[in-house]
Each structure stands twice: as structure tokens, then as C-alpha cells.
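I'll show a sample.
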Amino acid sequence: METSTPGIREAGTQCGIRVQKRGIPSPNQDNYSQKKEKATVPVRAVLFDLDNTLFDFVRAKLKACDAVISCLGSGSRKELLRFFLRDIWRLEDPVIIWEYMNHHGNTSRSEFERCKEIYLSVKKANTYPYPGVSQTLSYLRKNRVALGIVTDSATHIAREKLQLLQISRFFPILVTGEMTGTLKPKSDIFILALQRLCLPPGQVLFVGDSLYRDVHPSLTLGMQTAYAAYGDRNHFDNPCDIYPDYTLYSISDLMNLIPTVNKTIIKCDEKP
């Protein structure tokens, strides 16, 4: 994405801990003590971020912005996107299109309504799951792993996305920013999800595409973490030096990760 998402610090700034370019976990990082401690705890539940973790939100957004610019006959996708990014609480509010039009002196309500319908239609058409999502979720549910969603999206929009992705049946737990009045990386939204799971943090794996907004707060609360590198669109930024427990290059990797982790734990618990 061409612009930084609110809640993600600007490139080059500090956050109180070491900074590593692109935030890619270093194979030489001495993180074994943390992993050893968590390796004695089984994964009983998986919490997922939604946008860019289960589907390509950025692609859908950019396609929709392109369609609006084509509808208007002038303007810039990059500038329109920046209008949407000004307030993360309104990131998906189509009224932003009206504000963008007004900024350029266009006050035609009929043109706005036409562009809004095109925007919603194109975004909907481009909202589909990453390959392997349904199979992975089916596998986890079959193996009695509890599942939940933690997202900044408004509750009704999150439900619409899950319906479009045809995966709402997998997620009895949905926690959104408006339920706590805070957004990631604030811990409130993660704590509420843990409370609804009724599980200790160490038995929960959080899967998200942002090192700063997903992995860091989850680690702080004691959860196990899996960085969805396949969906990270913030690689241009220089996030804090954050090391997840695992890195996923496809969501299907979870089908190998979960049984491997839990099998290792069982072996560790066996008496000689």
C-alpha cells in the first residue's frame, strides 16, 4: 500500500525497543527461552485477524478505489486511498467518496450515489478468501481447536465480510474494535477475545499479518503468535524488532504447525 495505515508508526521512528528493517524475524535471534517456555503449552484455540490474514483486503480496497476514479473520470487512486486512511474508524465508510468529491469541488449527489454503488460492488467482488482458508479452518475445527476473529472492522462490516468469504460458520467468537472502543494495538480487544474463549493466553495462538498491531500485543499478553507473512502489506515500514513464535507463508501452514506443536508437547509430558 502506498500510505501508512493509522495505528502503524511512520518508518524510521522508534518505539522503545530495537528496530530491524522490515521486521523480518532473524534466524540468529536468541529467542529460545521464550519458545521453550511456550512449547510446554498446547494450542487449544486460534484467534485470527481478518483483513489481509484471511483475505486480501488491500487488493479489494485498491480495486474499489480504481473503480471510483474511473467513475469520476479524474483524480488519483492514491489520493482517494489517503482520504480513507485519515480515520481508521471510517476506513470502510463510502461517505469518504463524497468528501473526496467535495474536496475537488464536485457536489453532484447523483454522481456520488453512482460511484458509491460501484465502489461497494467492486469491493464485494474482490472479497474472497486466500487459497486454503476453508480447508485450514475445517481442519482446525475437526481437531477441536476453538476459533475466533479479532478485527478493527465495525461489527456489521466484519459479519458481512465473513458471509462473503463463506466462513462465518467457523467463528462463534467475533471481537471488534467498537466492542471495546479501542483499536489494535491496544490490548483491550485482545483481552476481550481471551475472556470469551475462557482459556489461559498461553493456550491461544494469534494469527495476524501485522508485527506491530497483531503480534506484539499478543506476545505481551502471553499468547503464542503466528505472523501471517503472506498477507503483510506493511513491509515498507520499519516496525519494531518483534519476533513471533512462528512465521506462516501460507495459511495452510497451520495444518502442519498445530499438530506438530501439540504432538511435541505430548511427547514432552510422557513419562519415561
